[in-house]
Design brief:
Largest sheet: none
Mean pLDDT: 88
CATH class: Mainly Alpha
């Protein structure tokens, strides 16, 4: 499958990586990660890391953090650290903190 097809978007501008992160599909996320653009954002201006932190998927966040910006905000001016703290996803907060200037 061509690289561009892997970055295709649905009606909400989500990529396959957004969907695998949202559904906590570690196998799909692992396969997609080296093949897709991790910086693509959906209609809410969220990247896949914001999507998984919102859902509290620690193991997906662990995969995405080394490849993602932890300081870029989505449409609601919240970055992954804000979101994980707001939803009390303490394990994700601990993962993100070493990758921020907080």
């Amino acid at each position: 499958m061509p690289f561009s097809s892997l970055n295709a978007r649905d009606v909400d501008r989500e990529t396959a990586l957004h969907v695998s992160a949202y559904h906590s599909n570690i196998d799909a996320t692992t396969v997609l990660l080296p093949l897709v653009s991790i910086s693509l954002r959906d209609k809410y201006d969220d990247n896949a890391l914001i999507t998984c932190t919102d859902e509290g998927h620690t193991h997906i966040a662990h995969l995405l953090i080394p490849h993602s910006s932890t300081t870029k905000n989505g449409i609601f001016r919240c970055n992954p650290l804000h979101i994980s703290a707001a939803f009390r996803h303490v394990d994700i907060v601990r993962l993100i903190l070493p990758h921020t200037d907080a």
